[in-house]
C-alpha cells in the first residue's frame, strides 16, 4: 500500500538543533527539498509561507490556489499539499509545533487566528506590494534569529511569530469572508469537535455521538457549528470522511471497496452515493479525473 509521507521538523534541518521550529528563505528551502515538494505530502507541524516572487499552483487537500507575489499560506498538521511552480519563487517559510507557540503564550491558542481557527477557513490570503514588504521584514527577522545562537533565542522567535500572526490575522479578517465570532466557548467547542471527528470519523458518523463526547446536546452542538461555520455537525463529519476518501483514492493502491470499508462503509454502493452527493462524482469518476 502506498502512503502519503508525513514529514517532521528534524528532517529539514540538522545544523540547527531545534526540534520544534524551522525557518529558511524559500529559494534555499526548495533547493534542499527539491525531491518531494512537488509530490503530495503531509506535515506534523504548523506551516506558514510567504511568496514575494514567483507563480504557480499550491494544492491543499484537493483545493487549488494560485501562487503570486504577496501570497501567504497557512497549513495545519495533517493537511496534504504540494507545489507546482512556473518560475523560481522567493520568500520565506517557517514551521513550528503547537507547543512551541503556546508554551510562550500560555493564555493564547493558535486557533485564535482565523486561518488556523478551522479547517473550513481559507488557508491563504493575498497582500499588496507594500504590505508584502512590511511582512517580509518580519519573516526575514525570524529567519535571521533562527540562524544565530543568541540568548533568549526561542523567546525572540516566538515573539516575532506572534507579531507576524497578528498582522496577518488583521489582513485576513479585512479581506476574507470570515465570521465575527465573539464567543470563546464556541471557538473552544468547535476546536474540540474537529479534534474528536479526526479521531472517530471512520467509525462514528452521528452528531449525537460527538455531542455526547462534548457533554452537550446535539441541538446545541448544531447551533454552534451553524453559527461559526454555517454548516451542520453532520456536514463536518461527512466532509472529513470525503476528504480522507479522496486522499486514499488518489494516494493509495487500495481498491475502492477496501477504501469504503476502511472509512466505515461496508456497503460500497452507499459510500459511492454519499461521495457523489458531496462531489458530483462517483469515487471511480473522481479517481479518473484526478489522474
From TrEMBL:
Keywords: DNA-binding, Transcription, Transcription regulation. PROSITE patterns: HTH_ARAC_FAMILY_2. Residues 191-289 form the HTH araC/xylS-type domain. The keyword ATP-binding does not apply. It comes from the Bacteria. The keyword Transcription regulation applies. InterPro entries: AraC-bd, Homeodomain-like_sf, HTH-like, HTH_AraC, RmlC-like_jellyroll. This is Helix-turn-helix transcriptional regulator. It comes from Flavivirga spongiicola.
Amino acid at each position: 500500500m502506498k502512503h502519503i509521507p508525513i514529514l517532521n521538523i528534524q528532517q529539514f534541518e540538522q545544523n540547527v538543533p531545534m526540534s520544534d521550529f524551522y525557518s529558511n528563505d524559500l529559494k534555499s528551502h526548495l533547493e534542499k527539498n527539491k525531491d518531494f515538494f512537488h509530490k503530495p505530502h503531509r506535515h506534523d507541524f504548523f506551516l506558514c509561507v510567504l511568496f514575494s516572487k514567483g507563480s504557480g499552483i499550491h494544492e491543499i487537500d484537493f483545493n487549488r490556489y494560485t501562487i503570486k507575489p504577496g501570497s501567504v499560506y497557512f497549513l495545519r498538521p495533517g493537511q496534504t499539499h504540494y507545489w507546482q511552480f512556473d518560475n523560481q519563487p522567493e520568500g520565506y517559510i517557517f514551521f513550528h509545533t503547537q507547543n512551541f507557540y503556546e508554551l510562550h503564550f500560555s493564555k493564547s491558542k493558535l486557533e485564535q487566528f482565523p486561518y488556523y481557527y478551522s479547517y473550513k477557513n481559507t488557508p491563504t490570503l493575498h497582500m499588496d506590494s507594500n504590505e508584502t514588504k512590511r511582512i517580509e521584514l518580519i519573516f526575514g527577522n525570524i529567519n535571521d534569529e533562527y540562524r544565530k545562537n543568541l540568548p533568549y533565542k526561542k523567546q525572540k522567535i516566538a515573539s516575532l511569530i506572534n507579531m507576524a500572526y497578528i498582522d496577518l490575522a488583521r489582513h485576513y479578517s479585512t479581506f476574507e469572508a470570515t465570521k465575527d465570532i465573539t464567543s470563546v466557548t464556541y471557538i473552544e467547542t468547535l476546536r474540540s469537535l474537529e479534534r474528536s471527528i479526526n479521531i472517530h470519523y471512520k467509525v462514528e458518523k452521528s452528531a449525537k455521538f460527538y455531542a455526547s463526547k462534548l457533554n452537550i446536546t446535539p441541538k446545541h452542538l448544531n447551533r454552534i457549528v451553524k453559527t461559526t461555520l454555517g454548516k451542520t455537525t453532520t456536514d463536518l463529519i461527512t466532509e472529513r470522511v470525503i476528504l480522507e476518501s479522496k486522499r486514499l483514492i488518489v494516494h493509495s493502491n487500495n481498491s475502492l471497496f477496501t477504501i469504503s470499508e476502511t472509512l466505515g462503509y461496508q456497503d460500497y454502493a452507499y459510500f459511492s452515493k454519499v461521495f457523489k452527493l458531496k462531489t458530483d462524482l462517483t469515487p471511480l469518476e473522481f479517481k479518473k479525473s484526478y489522474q
